[in-house]
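Write out this protein's structure.
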Amino acid sequence: MTDAPRIQLLLTGDELMSGDTVDSNSALIARELASQGLRPLRRVTLGDDALALQAEIATLCDNADALIINGGLGPTVDDLTAEVLARVAGLRLVEHPQALDHLEHWCARRGLTLNAANRKQALLPEGCELLPNPIGSAVGFTVEHNNCLVLCTPGVPGELRAMLPHLIERLGERFPHRSQSDVLRLQTFGVGESTAQQMISDHCPDWPDSVGLSFRAGAPQLEIKLVIDDPALEPQRQACLDTLQHLLGAHILGRDDARLAERVIDLARDQGITLTSAESCTGGLIAQMLTQIPGSSDVFPGAFVTYSNALKHSVLGVTTDTLDSVGAVSEETVRQMVQGALKASGATLGVAVSGVAGPGGGSDSKPVGTVWLAWGDLQRIDTLCLHWPLERTLFQTMVAAAALDCLRRRLLGIEESAHYLRQRRVPKDA
């Protein structure tokens, strides 16, 4: 058995080929494999064409130690994985009793009748072993062909995510003797990938080869990974981690899957503080990010989405004089918005945003991408203006994240300005 098994991926579905569905599953699989010291060598995406799938599966099995097939296990006629794989492996397609039992229980829990379409998901290659699906109707399964372990998983991302531990366990049983990378993941906000790399390059020209450094840029967070292949290298990685903590400081949110909103919720809960938001250009996205965190109701009684000037006035008490004289996108308006939200909700700490999301609606004095933020309590409210000329959805995402970051820094007592604020801030007298 080689130390680095050849693993290949096959993603199936017409929706992937047409662009109706964006492939996130291959990235999810690759990240999970990497955490176990495994790496796919090739990825292929095909539509729901039986002949093309048959030829590709045969070729991939001839050139791999393991093949992961994602998709094509559902109840419809275009779900072809089990049928085609059985044909390639020379196996009969039979009703698997355990898969059928899973389907019956799945339907019973939902008060559904098991129909013929759903029952199709129990037709699997004879002799296959199941991969449990904790949340979906279609089980996964494995078969052996040409000394290649073929692992089949549903295409629904949530189901795949729930099944990955079982898939990784099966791969571990098949390839037990391998080096395994140890990945330390840092979650950051407010510093971009190129900026982080330049900071590291400038301050750490002698970064050790024994500690892998990589980035995964996303919106709104940037993930930085420190990877070692031997536990004995932990002291070197710790030194690199200390360096990153010194360079990035408060831009670091936490480790692993730490999220900005989660950090805000935890800090507020620890301090006995309640939160609210008043939103215009973000349309409720700040509230959505907060309420995605389980238990957020402990500290988040509610929010206000006041898109029109009329609602800013009637719900939050923004004066008509302010709206008429300086407009909705102004320091005075967001200050009054957060004051109104605090009074109406009874929350301790609040944030308000109002901006020009675009693509239209800008002016010379307030171009597209301009946004005012205000945050604080009734005793102290801070404000700032940013210019973030991004596509509308990305603008909303980054502004909502910036608002949460302002709350996080306030809760931590951090006065130091974040990198993105120094980069995007518009002087008040501009």
